[in-house]
Amino acid sequence: AGTGLPKSEISQYRVEFGDVAWGTTQTEQITIRNTGELPLGVSSIALGTNEMESNFSLNLNHLISCDGGAGEASSEDPLAGGGSSDTGITIDDVEDGDTESDAGPAHDVFALKTGCTFTFDVILNPTSVGDIYGSVIIDYATEDGEEPAYYRDPDIFRETVILSGQSNKGAGNVVISPRTLDFGYPYPGEERTKYV
After folding, report:
1. For a tag on the chain, would you pick the N or C end, based on fewer CB atoms within 10 A?
2. What is the per-residue pLDDT for 73?
3. CB atoms < 10 A from the CB of 23, how many?
């Protein structure tokens, strides 16, 4: 990226959850940082589709922090509105999809100011057993108009963070019934069958 532009940095591009037992949850964090000189427009943070996304969820209600001033503050969901200049983000309403088909719901773009970070949670709550894979897709945007209030990183249109973990339902427990079998007194070479 050249001078005078936003620059996005992601804290990690692969999130390893490790072994997560069935019925429990594991939370990891991802941070987006704007190290550039102009506000960075983030138009979408979502789980990838046609993967194992039912095992994962996002909590976007987390922390905005800025270098040299604002400190850490809990934010409302920046993609649902409610941001302010005091938290390091500004909000702009946009429409998803094309207007002819009304293909998607309305959402918000948030502009991450220079030197600010946005941290959100990715949660694994296994609904399947074995290896689990997914992704988080982060899209950037530039506001329309002659003097945009935010810009996308000119080098990166979209970030993909790979998610992986493993799950099992615990050790098996085998119970045999009946506990004893009586074969009586068979003759040599005679077969007798009993079922448990």
Report:
1. C
2. 47
3. 10
Q: Which tens digits make up the pLDDT trace of 43-78?
A: 999 999 988 889 999 998 767 888 754 444 444 444
Q: For residue 22, what pLDDT is reported?
A: 84
Cβ within 8 Å of residue 93, ≥6 positions away:
81, 106, 108
Please work out, in degrees rounded to the nearest 5, the angle formed at the alpha carbon of residue 78 by the alpha carbons of 72 and 83. Answer: 70
In whole numbers, what is the pLDDT of the chain averaged over residues? 78
Rg (CA), the chain: 26
Burial class, 42, CB count within 10 angstroms (exposed 0-12 / middle 13-18 / buried 19+):
buried
Instruction: With a cut of 70, say whether residue 98 has pLDDT above it.
Output: no
CB contact set of 82 (below 8 Å; sequence gap of 6+): 75, 76, 91
Question: Are the C-beta atoms of 60 and 166 separated by less than 8 Å?
Answer: no
**Measured between alpha carbons, how far is 10 from 119 in angstroms, rounded to an integer?**
10
Per-residue confidence (pLDDT) for residue 67, from 0 to 100: 78
Cα 41 from Cα 153, distance rounded (Å): 8
**1, 20, 30: which is closest to 122 by C-alpha?**
30
Sheet with 116-124, strands from edge to edge, namely 8-10, 26-34, 116-124, 56-66, 71-74
Cα distances from 84 to residues 25, 63, 90, 147, 172, in angstroms, run 32, 13, 5, 20, 53
Tokens 């088909």 identify what position? 101
